[in-house]
Amino acid sequence: GRKGRERVSQGIPRRSKSYENLLTRCDPQELTREEAPAETTEVSEVVGGEDALGTLTDPNLVVDGEAGTAPKEASVAELLKFTVPTMGIWLASPILSLVDATVVGSQSVVELAALTPGTVLVDYLVYVFTFLGIATTNILSVTVAERNAKKTESRLNDALTLGLVCGVVLGGLIFVVNGKLFPMVIGAGAQELVKPASVYASIRALGVPFALVGMVLNCAFLASKNTRIPLISTLIGGFVNLGGDIALVNYLGWGIAGAAWATVLSQLLTVVVLCAYASGTFAGMPFRMRMKVPKLSSLLEFVRIAGPVSIILLSKVVVFSVVSLSAANLGATASAAHTLLFNVFLFFCVPGDSLNQCAQTFLPPVAGILKSEKVLKTRIILTGNVIGVANVILALLLIFCFPQILTTDALVTRALQGCGALLSLVLFLHPFGISTEGILMATKEFDYLLGTYIINMLCMLGTVKLIGATGPNLSKVWISLAFMQVLRLAANMRKIIPQQMKRIPKTA
User: Fold this and answer.
1) Fewest CB within 10 angstroms: 101, 129, 241, 364, which?
2) Could you report the per-residue pLDDT of 321-343, keeping only the tens digit for each?
3) What pLDDT digit, counting tens, does each position of 253-263 carry?
4) Distance between CA 496 and CA 489 in Å, rounded?
5) Which residue ranges traverse the bilayer (predicted)?
6) Between the CA of residue 364 and those of 75, 145, 444, what are the distances in Å?
């Protein structure tokens, strides 16, 4: 074989049957443009490292000697290079939620308590639709690795169309029904929360289309291993949200409505920035953004992933909604404490969520290469262990040493610290659970995840019912959340451990 490497400028997809057949019968010099798949667009300047827009280009798309170089598992350095900026992207939302809670809480404890049902309705329903982002990541991580420009453009435009349509429908639904829904789910003893929660949800509903389109674009860039552009757009949107909170809530006195308008404005600006960067090129390939009706084959590709994932996400939403609404019925002080505790939880969830995204980006390109899969899974799980320990230390410091960052109310502070140990336990378990969930999603174990989440949801609903029957309090609410994390981790490891223990054939 020849020393060094030759680039395959024809854009032949890795691991495709046509590519493997060509490798078995041709010297790399003999690969011609006519033999490459017709729908693949030429990308002749792809090199390892980063392109001008920050995309981590794939150095594995080469031929080494007389045999194709198989894609290798990402190194720890590559995982960190992807995960750390991704943490910055995912940290923006919980940071701004904490800012919302702190700014609104400085004006009114009642409006702070009303943030819980308001955000539960809007953010959790939007969260269900993150199946679009998960499907986008799973599909584009493969098409981008293959340098298939035509399919990448088609699938991304399909995802954007689906995101916009779903966003308009969901936002309209929230706007119409929230006024009738809140009086039914908020207990008779906390009816003062209904009006501010309804005001918040109605305004936030206007930003739902921007939220879903922005989510799809963020996941598309992350699927191409580009963390720079999502991070830039997130920082810009975050500064707008922060400035809007201070101006509208503190100076203009709009209260909870001002926090909602600041969030909507930041979502709009984030989408504008992402669209500007995606215009013309995407992942180093030509790209034209346009509205289009997805073909049936494309819809089925999304549905195969989105179908089970949407039910998985819905089960999460049901559990968190029931738990949060049970906390809302504990009274203004306990509900305000739960709002702050839950925002702290969401903040420290981010490193684990980044590992989940990392698994979905890096595992699909090495699918079927058993040794690479095992090594990468082990690295992700061990990283989750480190993150869990760090979460516990930082959360305990925040709750017990610096509670004034969250609230200056003495009663709320006492309630926070009463659940500090339970919060730390939840935060220790979360990185394990969510990173192993990302591994199972990346390896297409959707049916297994669906079954475990349905069982988990039923167990949690029974637990919440038991809490209500035995006299609810904030500690019991957080015990139920810890129970949920234990169930999820046990179910995920039951599937992953046998896979990791399996012996690799010598030919793998």
Assistant:
1) 364
2) 788 777 877 878 888 888 888 88
3) 899 999 999 99
4) 10
5) 82-104, 124-144, 156-177, 197-223, 235-254, 260-284, 305-324, 380-405, 411-434, 446-468
6) 15, 9, 9
